[in-house]
Amino acid sequence: MPRPFLLLTTFLLATLGCRYDHLPEPELEQAPGPVRERFLHLGHTYVPYLTYQDIDTFVERADYSRFAAVMLGGDLFPNTSLDPATLQWADSIFDFRDEKTLWAIGNHDYDDPWRVRDLVGRPLYYSWYHNGITFLVLDTQDSLSNIVGDQLLYARAVLDTVQESKQVFVLTHKMIWMADNGPLQAMIDSVSNGYYGSCFFCVNPNNFYTDIYPLLVQLKDRGVGVWCIAGDIGYKVRRFEHRTADDIRLLAGGMCSLCGGDNYYLEFSWTRAENRLEYSYRPIETLVE
Hints:
alpha/beta; Purple Acid Phosphatase, chain A, domain 2
């Protein structure tokens, strides 16, 4: 990376990332972690049509200490942040202050985003480095699915400074990567909870393919695995998988408890020494061992 650009990127991370107190990657590489680690992704965990504090019973009872990363795709409760008691209840389940809990906030979590920030102790977009993987969490409710302003500057800075990571996860609530992609856009209304349109919960026309995707392709060309994972799914289908022509994986997982049919969570198995990352959709019942 040219030194002037490196200095600029460092400045951006210092100014934008001062809210997190750490860079996305360590200055000195950490020793390899455990031989095998497990990561979890959950989306749309609330039980619809009941009270504002209802969440799937298996999600509520799970032991999340078994996972090295807990990725939450948003819409945890019907109105997660509307009432402080609900947010505290969610925190008692997921432990938002734990750095491994990565929450891509959704429209049902967005009643009071400042309350979320105060509790979690992080902005609504941030990054985390762990054992050879960079996790980038984006706020797709802000600016109607568009990643703009400081959030775009931050995302660029993180993705441009990936050096040690073997894998990169981009976590979102909305399936923003379905818009402006001909075959995928045609599927939005039959896959995503939010249909294609201009509303707050919709999958809106956005800048993912102009401003974010090219950076992901650059990483892939360097041999870094790239995974984009969304959580606004569950009412129509519970699982979604797509591999782009550039070998970037687009995944989504979400639930609809009491809606009938099976529910799933995404589990990843990571073996850093072999740079092997595998995933599977597992029945939600198996989350409670």
